[in-house]
Amino acid sequence: MTRHLEDAVLADVDRRLADADTALAMQYPGDDGRRQPIHTVYVPGDRYTATTPADWSSTALESARTAGGLDAVASMVGVTEGTDCAPDTLATLVQHKLSTEPIEDLRVDFEDGYGTFDDETEDADVERAIAALRTAVDAGTSTPFVGARFKCFEANTRARGLRTLDMFVSGLVESGGLPDGLTLTLPKVTSVDQVEAMVAVAAALESANGLPANRIQFEVQVETPQAILGSDGRAPVAQFVHAGQGRVSSLHYGTYDYSASLGIAAAYQSMEHPVADHAKNVMQLAVAGTGVHVSDGSTNILPIGDADNVATAWRLHARLVRRHLERGIYQGWDMHPAQLVTRYLATYAFYRGAFGPAAARLRNYVHKLDSTVMDEPATVRALANVIHRGAVCGALTVDEIETAADLPMTTVRDIALGRPTRSDQ
Question: What is the pLDDT of residues 309-326, one digit of tens each?
């Protein structure tokens, strides 16, 4: 084989691209393997109690029972249509989830869901919320992820937001330490400067409370037009991720603030409006390769009232959950306990419906078996990823994964996260 380029050429290319290589590795490190919750539940700060997860579980299960059971609701909302997912199997898995881990991520809300009160009132509510959360954490009944949403960094709410944030973090530290799944939410971000300010605040809180560096991370709510398109024509949301210096854990789309800011009439504000899709498309591009998660927003159509209203709201919610999952957004918001019913039915049906074909293609690729589909490494990683996500949230069991894929679960996880496996060597 004839070569004409000398080794010096490669050395020159390495020199030219050294800075770019370093920047790429730092700015786009990829998935770090941490769990992403399938939803976030917002509870007003004056209504949160240590029993909130259990209370939501009871309400969700009772709403399903009233409608004839989880299998009946699954058929009613059509989550198993076009799949080989059995409603009774789905119902059993969701029953277990709602009974043991009804809420994956909970945010004690001191922003829009809470309202505006005098300092004395909000201070008292923050203190009560800290005490309730400490009780739940110590009892082992808290949610895997939990935190607070405080008021935004705009001038008129900045002081109150920082006061609540300081009290919440410092109060948890003083009462026994920060929970492992602590997540803080910075809402209504309009500039990169606000993200940079939050980084400085997080560092100051760590220093003041004797916490290790980078212990405090936060998610950014994307609910203003200024976050998607800046006055200079750039997409500030992409800058948010990197301005966070490793502290930004996720971007959350705010359905109603964003829609209203663009002048969308209230009747047409929705997670599936074209303006919502555009914003979320930009958000997905902004986080690609960074390891930062993306969450869809919420629907304000609640499954309460008479049976027809409940069924209509459930069908809408189930369809919207399925919609964002199909679009590669694996998290959303839930605002009412009865929405947990369709959150889990739709989510579990999505993963169980995708499981069979994904496991077969993954098995064929890894074991080099004949297949009617010629998959490439990037697609194989996506196949493993949908299986891994299904296992993490409880939609799939390890036994059925290992049987169908003919692979250890650890190998499936490694492929999903882009880690070397024995089959790569």
Answer: 999 999 999 999 999 999
